[in-house]
Write a structure and sequence with these properties.
Elements (H helix, E strand, L loop, with lengths): L27 H6 L5 H9 L3 H4 L5 E6 L1 H7 L9 H12 L2 E3 L12 E3 L5 E7 L2 E4 L2 E10 L2 E6 L30 E3 L16 E4 L4 E6 L9 E3 L21 E6 L4 E6 L9 E6 L16 H23 L1
């Protein structure tokens, strides 16, 4: 049975290890750095510039290979210290990260889950032993302030891409027609965003332009909901709305007047997943005259009349 995405529930005996007494008030990288058996993982995260990401709010679930697992896998961080190596290392490390909080209460043999790098991982259960891919979970449910750590005894390697299975979309009749789209907005898949940001957050268009929000097979569900301002978190009544959040979305909207359009992803509004579109000259604010001095013009007129009366009175006195 294949379920994607899925809350991964791992049943495993919690064994004595440095992580078993981790500080649940500290984030995932801090806990990993303090175990004494995850130095290679911490160094790899730093080299791939993923530490700040995993220090974020989360929640995340990290399947953490030990130092021995890195040694057994033959991973040489020095050899990966270049642009191509960083891309490879990032792919490997994000294959160990699931976006969401994952507890170890139950597991079904054969379950699959989409990891942060976009690849699926399969879980097996044999005589109470839980495996993630070909790695065994040795310590489960280590709580951190922004997620959960499960220790594994091997480094997970992402599945190799099969060139024979690659599809040329140029002649695919099911490929999306985006010819009407003046702007296409998708999901930011960079490690820093962790799939919780739009890839374009500030867009300027002309009246009559069409904006298309399009993404497919994301690891998390997203939507588009109009809000009243840059800080609003509640969907605007009768506003533009793509519908319930989905992992695959194709939502298109044509703007017909000058306005400043604010929108959010409802499931991730707490992670500040939002955007703004300025249409034409944007929303023209009506000047607020409530603070103007009341009757200013009248006051000037009255002053002029009083001065005139005083002048005439003095002339009469002189005569």
């Amino acid at each position: 049975m294949r379920i994607v995405p899925i809350t991964i529930l791992i049943t495993a005996m919690l064994v004595i290890s440095p992580l078993a007494i981790a500080d649940e008030n500290e984030d995932i990288p801090t806990n990993a750095a303090n175990t004494g058996v995850h130095d290679s993982l911490v160094a790899a995260l730093a080299q791939a510039e993923l530490v700040a990401t995993l220090e974020g709010e989360g929640p995340f679930t990290v399947f953490a290979p030990t130092d021995q697992a890195f040694t057994d896998a033959g991973i040489d961080l020095d050899a990966l210290d270049n642009e191509d190596g960083k891309a490879t290392l990032t792919d490997i490390l994000t294959y160990h990260v699931y976006v969401g909080s994952v507890a170890s209460n139950e597991v079904t043999d054969g379950m699959t889950a989409k990891m942060y790098n976009g690849d699926d991982v399969t879980f097996t259960v044999t005589d109470g032993v839980v495996k993630v891919g070909d790695a065994t979970v040795t310590t489960a449910d280590v709580m951190a302030s922004n997620g959960i750590i499960h220790v594994i005894d091997k480094v997970l390697m992402p599945p190799a891409e099969d060139a024979n299975n690659e599809v040329d979309d140029t002649n695919d009749s099911t490929a999306k027609d985006t010819s009407e789209c003046d702007v296409i907005i998708g999901i930011d898949s960079t490690p820093a965003a962790m799939g919780m940001a739009y890839d374009k957050t500030n867009v300027n268009i002309m009246v009559g332009d069409t904006v298309c929000w399009i993404w497919e097979d994301e690891s998390m569900a997203h939507n588009v909901a109009q809000v009243d301002s840059a800080t609003s978190t509640t969907r605007k009544s009768n506003g533009v709305y793509s519908g319930e959040s989905e992992t695959t979305v194709d939502f298109r909207y044509t703007f017909t007047e000058d306005e400043t359009f604010y929108y959010v992803c409802e499931p991730h509004v707490d992670q500040d997943m939002r955007g703004v579109i300025t249409v034409g000259i944007g929303t023209v604010e009506t000047p607020d005259k409530s603070n103007d001095a009341p009757g200013f013009g009248l006051a000037i007129t009255m002053s002029a009349l009083l001065l005139g009366l005083m002048f005439n009175s003095r002339r009469q006195d002189m005569e």
